[in-house]
Amino acid sequence: MPTFSHNTATSSFAASGAFDTVWPLSPLTLVKQLLSACKLQGAADALPAGLPLGVEIVDNQGNFKVDELFAVLGAVGANQPADVKEAIEAIDTMLKIVRQYS
Q1: Does residue 11 register a pLDDT over 60?
Q2: pTM, two decimal places
Q3: What is the DSSP letter of 28?
């Protein structure tokens, strides 16, 4: 519970309190940086800073679970332009090609 106080002698205010993390987030920093590096800043800006913990957006083979990602984005109220989904699908395809040669 927040607590506020005012000291009239010194004309100062004080506040204290705490908060609980109700919905811990897993950061999307790497995905956002990858989109930015690919000159897709608009796509990076459309993604939220993180997703709820426990949400897996990559499968066992390292491929993006694009449909699951966008289902979660819809659940957290994030903007989901079609070009963002296409950009992530294109990056996933590129990563698959690169993995074939590594």
Answers
A1: yes
A2: 0.44
A3: -
